[in-house]
Amino acid sequence: MEDDQLLRYSRQLFLPQIDVQGQQRLLAARALIIGLGGLGSPAAMYLAAAGVGHLVLNDDDAVDLSNLQRQIIHRTEDLGRAKAVSAKHALERLNPDIQVTAACARLEQTELEQAVGEADVVLDCSDNFTTRFAINAASVKRGTPLITGAVIRFEGQMAVFTPAIEDSPCYNCLYLDRGEVMENCAQTGVIAPLPGIIGSMQALEAIKVILDIGKPLRQRLLLLDALTMEWHSVILRKNPKCPTCSGH
Length: 248
Ligand SMILES: [Zn+2]
Fold this sequence. Notes:
Number of helices: 10
Helix content: 25-40%
Number of strands: 8
Bound molecules: zinc ion
CATH superfamily: NAD(P)-binding Rossmann-like Domain
CATH class: Alpha Beta
CATH architecture: 3-Layer(aba) Sandwich
Low-confidence stretches: none
Largest sheet: 8 strands, mixed
Order of helices and strands: HHHEHEHEHEHEEHHHEE
């Protein structure tokens, strides 16, 4: 590691769980972030700042004025730009030490599977069920850990799925694919700092998964009620009849 890297990452290098070896592991890691909105903004910024060496950003949307209340990676001058490009630009200024790839088209089946398969960890920061189920299916197929987050109004939730570990549930064990349309922030609203909390936690869990340290939020769904600031966690079990992960 070079001198400026030792300084840049010094506050992580002090941590015995990380040290030089862990930092090198982060620098060699690749994370796929799907959705560069409220959740993806802080998630991508913390992963970039922490020195996760290659970030692949996927979003097919453009920055809109109504996004700026919570999607803090984008600036007013980015209005109209592709979110993946706007985010890439911000991350390169934050940490020129890492590689950032912007993918501005929706990743369909084969491309999605390939992108998920190439990543050490996938962060689902999307806002609709179709994308969530597609990411989950690719994660199960390729065995890539999936860190999912969601926010609406004053409510947040997150979970970590580790399909390569036996008896792990998947997103489809938790939610059935009934073709429902997810309530989203565009119609229902969300309080500004909430995606910041959940997205930052997704980044933290991603780092833990990459480094294999601590106890990731496996087999638990964490729920936050931001109005009362109460956290709950629900145990998740594999659904033996799950159409995605059960093999039936
Ligand atoms: Zn499942």
